[in-house]
Amino acid sequence: MTGPARRAFRAVRSDSRPCAKKAAVTNARLSKIVPYAVAGAAAGYLYYVAANIDYHARAGVLGPDFWPKLILALTIAACAYEIVRLLFFAGRDGEVGGVLEEVVEDSAGKHGEIEARPAAVSHPLLLALGMAATLVYVAAVQKLGFFLATALYFALFMVIGRYRRWGVIAAVSLLGTLLLMFIFMKLVYVSLPIGVEPFSRVTFLLMQLMGIR
Amino acid sequence: MEGVLANLAVGFAHVFEPVNLLVLVVGIVLGLLVAVLPGLTLVMGVVLALPFTYSMDVTAAIILLTAMYVSGTYAGAWTSILFHVPGEPIDVPLLWDGYAMARKGKAAEALGWTLIAAFFGGMVAAVVMVLLSQPIARVALTFSTPEYFAIIFFGLASVVSLGGGSLANALISLFAGLLIATVGVDDTYGAYRFTFNIPILSDGIDYLVVMVGAYGLGEVFVRLEQGFTSAQLEAIGRISTKLPGLREILAVKSTFLRSGLAGILIGIVPGAGATVASFLSYGMEGQYGRRRAQMGSGIAEGIVAPQTAATASVGGAIIPLVTLGIPGSGATAIILGAFLLHGLQPGPQVFQTSANIVYAMFASVFAGIVVMCVIGYFATKPMVKVLDLPEVIVSAYVVMLCLLGAFAARNNITDVWLMVIFGILGYLFERFRFPITPLVLGVILGPLAETNFMTTMISFNNDWTVFFTRPLAGPIMLVGILTLLYPLFRHLRRQAKMRGSRDIAL
Questions:
Q1: ipTM field
Q2: Which of B279, B313, B451, B488 to mutate to test the interface with A (most CBs of A within 10 A)?
Q3: Do B86 and B79 contact (CB within 8 A), yes or no?
Q4: Yes or no, beta carbons of B168 and A95 under 8 Å apart
Q5: Does A109 reach chain B within 8 Å, measured CB to CB?
Q6: A96 vs chain B: nearest CA distance in angstroms?
Q7: For tag attachment on chain B, is the N or C end more exposed, with fewer CB atoms within 10 Å?
């Protein structure tokens, strides 16, 4: 790029910076609005559901829809308030915080301890895998039985959590599952899922070995 | 008075039965371990212990959970003081003076002050709890539904107003909890509400499922997203506890009294727990203490104030639980769950129907504090060793105990699905800065609030003014409304002050 061209480009870029900044601020504001919009919309839908609750009305008595509708109306109002505040007043008026929030802010401001902590790094993939593993576990535990499903889940969870000491993983998964099985089936009398054939054979064998009837 | 003492003696006799004593020691040790581990909060610990109590005798179950609750307010102080890692949110104020004192080479003294503060706060609150409970229960017998509704309204207002984070978020969280509590068949009409043709929803959503999911699983998801990064701990050589002398204790007696009283009162307020007590008491000491200018530099008052209040809040929180059947904190909500699971309903009648269990609970607070202090004095070092456990392993077990806890409640896999859903919801709440406590207390107190509101409306021909015109309900409602509006007043005053100083600067 030649000198004048570079200067012109810089001029254009510096002109566009406030616009970019403004767009970024608007985007940040809009993304803050999303949870309130979702909560408000969900409350609106549930209000509709509540309004259609089937019951035999009695004269002079509030119906079973009154209480949920009251709560939902208040939810919608709170969401609307936050959306309006974020859209139009976010820069001028900060949010109203609880009493503890202010005490923490005052104390932390004086002592500078809370701010000293580094911001946590985010690992969305680990989170997604952890959630998926938990959902799969709940779906599989009745088929595989408690022992097999839990031992596998323990191992998988530790691997997802970036733990790589394989001997410890195996020991913690197997012994931990056996211990839980013993406590809950033998001592607390909870009938944990035994699984379907052929997996149930493993459960029955272990139950026999631990003296669980 | 003699009756109270006689009942308390019977309570002690129950606690000192070998099995119950063993349960008490186990509860204290578990509570201490839970408080030390940064990934586990006191409420989570008590939630996770609940399934183990299903097959226990009711007295033993209550003793176990109460012991965990008592000691859970104490041990997090060790890691705050020694490693600058608060085991619980309660212990954050201990970073300011506790850790500062340790950095001056006085870690043993800081631990000694914590122990004395926990002992004093716990014991004073326990005495107040024993003295006040029966008279309050007697008064509560005269309450009608408007009074009950007013008390619940005040509790819900205080949980929203006293908590951290945005007021609007706390309100939305509370409304979500109240709404969850409406799921199922309605008591008055037998109408199905929000069941969406799912059979198990007809029985409603058990608040324990919500608690286990939101507090336990949700927190694990948050930590998983952060990659289970534990704080680097400083190498500590010898860990010992050096108790302060009587003259040193008397020099800060007003701090002990002020914080103890604050802790008890905050504990009594339904919805405000040990964390609020700890922070507010530290803040109070910073405003009114004799050495307020030196707060944060490692002085005894900065340790005594939060620790005394935190432990004192336990006795305070038990009072509304046993006298009104209204839990004052997350942990007492689980203890309420344990009572209900064993077919007992805390409330004004409980002193007539199950006085022995209530007094065993009271006695377990006294005995628990003593056991806690003995273990705290001799076993701090082995206890903090638990921090060497990889967080991912602890979390794996937390998840499993959450899943088992949800399953064991009704032996139904649908409860586990619901718990996982509430776990994800708990994570989303944390992610978008919606507090979880109002959600949980909304679920717990929602049915009580609705029943008392609807019964009042039916009894008083839909005249809502009775909530404000009755001699007891009216003032409580007014205090509730003022509590709710207080953060708004503070905010407006702050804004006006800032605007004023900006004008002066210009």
A1: 0.83
A2: B279
A3: yes
A4: yes
A5: no
A6: 6
A7: C
Q: How far apart are CA B217 and CA B40, in angstroms?
A: 11
Q: Over the stretch A52-77, which tens digit does the pLDDT of each residue have?
A: 998 887 777 888 999 999 999 999 99
A54 touches chain B (CB under 8 A): yes
Secondary structure letter of residue A210 according to DSSP: T
Q: With contact defined as beta carbons under 8 Å apart, do B67 and B27 qualify?
A: yes
Touching check for A191 and chain B: CB below 8 Å? yes
> Hunting for tokens 């727990």 — which residue is that?
B273
Residue A140 in contact with partner chain B when CB distance is under 8 A: no
Q: Is B209 helix (H, G, I), strand (E, B) or coil?
A: helix
What's at B218, amino acid-wise?
Answer: G
Q: Report the domain count for chain B.
A: 1
For residue A4, what pLDDT is reported? 47
Residue B230: predicted pLDDT: 63
* Nearest partner of B333 among B424, B213, B440, B217, judged by Cα: B440
- For residues B454-478, average pLDDT: 92
Phi and psi torsions of B184, nearest 5° = 120, -165
Question: Tell me, what's the pLDDT at A93?
Answer: 59
Q: Which A positions 18-37 lie with beta carbon below 8 A of chain B?
A: 35-36
Tell me if chain A has a CB within 8 Å of the CB of B493.
Answer: no
Residue B426 to residue B41: CA distance in whole angstroms = 14
Residue A35 tokens read as 């949870």
Query: Hey, are the CB atoms on B165 and A98 less than 8 Å from each other?
Result: yes
| Residue to substitute from A99, A158, A168, interface B, most B β-carbons within 10 A | A99
pLDDT at residue A5 in the model: 47
Q: Tell me the shortest Cα–Cα distance from A14 to chain B, in angstroms.
A: 30
Domain span including residue B188 = 2-505
| Alpha-carbon span B53 to B17, nearest angstrom | 17
> Among A16-20, B22-26, B109-113, B260-264, whose mean pLDDT is lowest?
A16-20
Under an 8 A CB cutoff, do A107 and B282 touch?
A: yes
- Cβ B476 vs Cβ B150: under 8 Å: yes
Share of chain A above pLDDT 70, in %: 76
Interface contact flag, A190 B164, Cβ < 8 Å: no
Chain A window 61-90: which residues touch B at a Cβ cutoff of 8 Å? 61-68, 71-72, 74-75, 78-79, 81-82, 85
More confident residue, B44 or B259: B259
Does the beta-carbon distance from A191 to B450 stay under 8 Å?
no
Do the beta carbons of residue B77 and residue B361 sit within 8 Å?
no
The alpha carbon of residue B164 is apart from the nearest alpha carbon of chain A, in Å, by 4
What pLDDT is stored for residue B233 in this prediction?
A: 61
Percent of chain A with pLDDT over 90: 54
Per-residue pLDDT, B262 = 93
> Which tops the pLDDT comparison, B14 or B91?
B14
- For residue B489, name the pLDDT band (cuts at 50, 70, 90): confident
As beta bridge partners, residue B166 has A97
Of A36-50, A88-102, B71-85, B191-205, give the lowest mean pLDDT range.
A88-102
Query: Per residue in A2-47, pLDDT tens?
Result: 444 455 445 445 555 666 666 776 777 778 899 999 999 999 999 9
Nearby residues of A150 by Cβ (< 8 Å), 6 or more positions away = A137, A141, A177, A180, A181, B400
SS (H, E, C) B65-92: HHHHHHHHCCCHHHHHHHHCCCCCHHHC
Closest in B191, B286, B435 to A54, CB measured: B191
**Chain B contact set for A71 (CB, 8 A):** 175, 178-179, 182
Tell me what pLDDT residue A107 has: 62
**If you count DSSP H runs as helices and E runs as strands, how many of each does chain A have, helices first?**
7, 0
